[in-house]
Specification:
Chain lengths: 37, 247
């Protein structure tokens, strides 16, 4: 496997993990209802 | 997912890709150069100056998995030690040998392939065995699937001599046991031939009860078995047609 592909796969996996973790921790939180809703 | 956040996600991924590419150009190239120097030093230390090491793949891309070439005059132990030492360097991935310039498979790699086949067959037969009808050489139909697996495992070794040895336990008349073990080995040979393994490379032999499983009582029924051993063939000189890129 060429070196650039190893780096890209690792970085993209790390990025995807970070995005997934962020979504799990904060992305799913219910929005605060607006006043009057 | 809303449109702006998807765009943000893709922008992030692209940024990661770009950072990765930039990283392989600068620090990555420096790292590969460092690995190359360390591998060279390791080979020289092992007395394998005639072996060259290349940290680029078949397409010319830098890689952590080096290709070793040359050193044909060195003995197999030195070559193996040199390759193992290069592979043990921190940061180096798996090491492989470049095919010989003449296109021949080396004797070492042929016997390694033969050993590989034998290991896979032994792995298959470790927990299951080829069953025969009591007192006869007829293979139990239930063993058909197992024979299929054995044939698949032996297929990479077609061209090698594959010895099939039948064994029995020490119960009963030895002459009958000997004949039965030979008949069973022949039955397995024919079964493998019918599954596409070249008959020319198969050798069937029965040894009766003379070679029991070590540690077992000679009368133990577990001594009844079929053993396979894959012997590397006498090196065949490839014709130019067999050698890709030759001529």
């Amino acid at each position: 496997m060429p070196f650039w592909l190893e780096i890209e796969v690792l970085l993209l996996l790390t990025y995807a993990t970070g995005v997934a973790l962020g979504w799990l921790l904060w992305g799913r939180a219910p929005r605060k209802p607006h006043i009057g809703e | 997912m809303s449109r702006p956040s998807l765009a943000l996600l893709l922008a992030g991924a692209s940024a990661v890709l770009l950072i990765g590419l930039a990283d392989t150009q600068g620090p990555g190239a420096a790292m590969i150069a460092r690995l190359q120097a360390a591998a060279r030093a390791s080979l020289d230390h092992d007395g394998a100056q005639s072996i060259s090491v290349r940290f680029t793949d078949d397409h010319g891309w830098p890689t952590r998995h080096p290709t070793l070439a040359g050193g044909e005059r060195l003995d197999d132990a030195t070559r193996a030690q040199a390759a193992a030492d290069v592979a043990a360097l921190p940061g180096v991935g798996g090491v492989r040998w470049a095919p010989r310039a003449s296109g021949h498979q080396s004797a070492a790699s042929t016997s390694a392939a033969a050993l590989g086949c034998q290991h896979s067959v032994e792995g298959i037969l470790r927990t299951r065995s080829i069953r025969f009808t009591e007192g006869s050489a007829a293979i139990d139909p239930a063993s058909g699937e197992l024979l299929n697996e054995v044939a698949t495992a032996l297929r990479p070794c077609v061209g090698s001599i594959i010895a099939i040895t039948g064994h029995t336990n020490a119960q009963g008349d030895e002459a009958i046991n000997l004949a039965l073990s030979a008949e069973r080995a022949v039955a397995v040979r024919d079964a493998l031939a019918s599954r596409g393994i070249d008959m020319a490379g198969l050798r069937a032999k029965g040894v009766g009860s003379e070679r029991g499983v070590s540690g077992l009582d000679p009368a133990d029924p577990a001594n009844r078995r079929i053993e396979f051993s894959v012997l590397a063939p006498a090196s065949l000189e490839p014709t130019p047609v067999d050698t890709p890129g030759a001529g």
